[in-house]
Amino acid sequence: MGLTDILYEKVEGVAKVTINRPKSLNAFRAETIKELIWAFRDAWDDNRIGAVILTGAGEKAFCVGGDQKEKGDEGGYDYNGGLGGGIGLEVENLHQTIRNIPKPVIAAVNGYAIGGGHVLHVICDLTIAADTAKFGQSGPKVGSYDAGFGSAYLARVVGEKKAREIWYLCEQYTAEESKEMGLVNKIVPASELQEEADKWARKILEKSPTAIKMLKYSFNADSANIQGISQLSMGSLAMFYNTEESEEGKNAFLEKRPVDFNKFRK
Ligand SMILES: CC(C)(COP(=O)(O)OP(=O)(O)OC[C@H]1O[C@@H](n2cnc3c(N)ncnc32)[C@H](O)[C@@H]1OP(=O)(O)O)[C@@H](O)C(=O)NCCC(=O)NCCSC(=O)CCC(=O)c1ccccc1C(=O)O
């Protein structure tokens, strides 16, 4: 597959997937999601690969969610090829792929992990953060939400109260604060992030692949019901994107003006 939005490499049993749109803070569009799914599938099928690292290009961002500049006026993002992409992005398919690939996925968070980008690291098995990383959801500010793994699974990781705070207030959290709430496994200086992620991947490679696979399936089994919620969530999001309320969020962001949701509170 010709790759334009991601970088993909495999080195001695470790696959590394890098979202490569640094000018847009690694925001994803339909093509990005398609390529990410392809890369995770490739790592899944390659028996020599024992762990995958997901990271972002540049120093500023891991991923800041859906590319608001590629979001159309008629609902979703830039892809309308098939019913699976109801919001114009196959995000739900990507989430499933990251969860179901029978190998641990390590998020190496090198900067902003915001919105849909935050959801990506939440779904990964492990998160290693640069000391400069910033974490948070932003959907309700821009007329969007992830009512599947992005909220229900987040609540399992940080607890119900904290998850609700994260989504209702849309604040940003430092790497230190995120570690305290159980969102991050380890913090390292930014310059050591990729090396540390690689070290963790190599420690996993020393272990029994079958034991690791079955443990991942076992952890997943307990939250598998969220998959159904996730499908409903994306279905409802596709409808929400067609409303003036959602459009107001996106337009305010693009026009760099304060958002006005008050007119929808009546
Ligand atoms: C990330 C910021 C906090 C960074 O702020 P700052 O350092 O001040 O930089 P900026 O000047 O704001 O940004 C620099 C440059 O990048 C552009 N940019 C930033 N974010 C995006 C984006 N998401 N899309 C497109 N472009 C973006 C920005 O416009 C600037 O470019 P200029 O040319 O200079 O204008 C801050 O940038 C920020 O808050 N960004 C918005 C983050 C955001 O709202 N993301 C979408 C969230 S939607 C969501 O959370 C839904 C949840 C979800 O999981 C989901 C599920 C299913 C489908 C889609 C999504 C989804 O994410 O949409």
UniProtKB/TrEMBL annotation:
GO terms for cellular component: cytosol. It comes from the Bacteria. Keywords: Lyase, Menaquinone biosynthesis. The record marks 77, 241 as: Important for catalysis. Gene3D superfamilies: 2-enoyl-CoA Hydratase, Chain A, domain 1, Lyase 2-enoyl-coa Hydratase, Chain A, domain 2. Substrate binds at residues 64-68, 77, 112-116, 144, 241, 256. Pathway: Quinol/quinone metabolism; 1,4-dihydroxy-2-naphthoate biosynthesis; 1,4-dihydroxy-2-naphthoate from chorismate: step 6/7; Quinol/quinone metabolism; menaquinone biosynthesis. It holds the Pfam family ECH_1. The keyword Nucleus does not apply. Its EC number is 4.1.3.36. One of its GO terms (biological process) is menaquinone biosynthetic process. It is an enzyme of class 4 (lyase). It catalyses: 2-succinylbenzoyl-CoA + H(+) = 1,4-dihydroxy-2-naphthoyl-CoA + H2O. InterPro entries: ClpP/crotonase-like_dom_sf (IPR029045), DHNA-CoA_synthase_MenB (IPR010198), Enoyl-CoA_hyd/isom_CS (IPR018376), Enoyl-CoA_hydra/iso (IPR001753), Enoyl-CoA_hydra_C (IPR014748). GO terms for molecular function: 1,4-dihydroxy-2-naphthoyl-CoA synthase activity. SUPFAM superfamilies: ClpP/crotonase (SSF52096). NCBIfam families: menB (TIGR01929). Belongs to the enoyl-CoA hydratase/isomerase family. MenB subfamily. PANTHER family: 1,4-DIHYDROXY-2-NAPHTHOYL-COA SYNTHASE, PEROXISOMAL (PTHR43113:SF1), NUCLEOSIDE-DIPHOSPHATE-SUGAR EPIMERASE (PTHR43113). Converts o-succinylbenzoyl-CoA (OSB-CoA) to 1,4-dihydroxy-2-naphthoyl-CoA (DHNA-CoA). This is 1,4-dihydroxy-2-naphthoyl-CoA synthase. It comes from Oceanobacillus halophilus. The gene is menB.
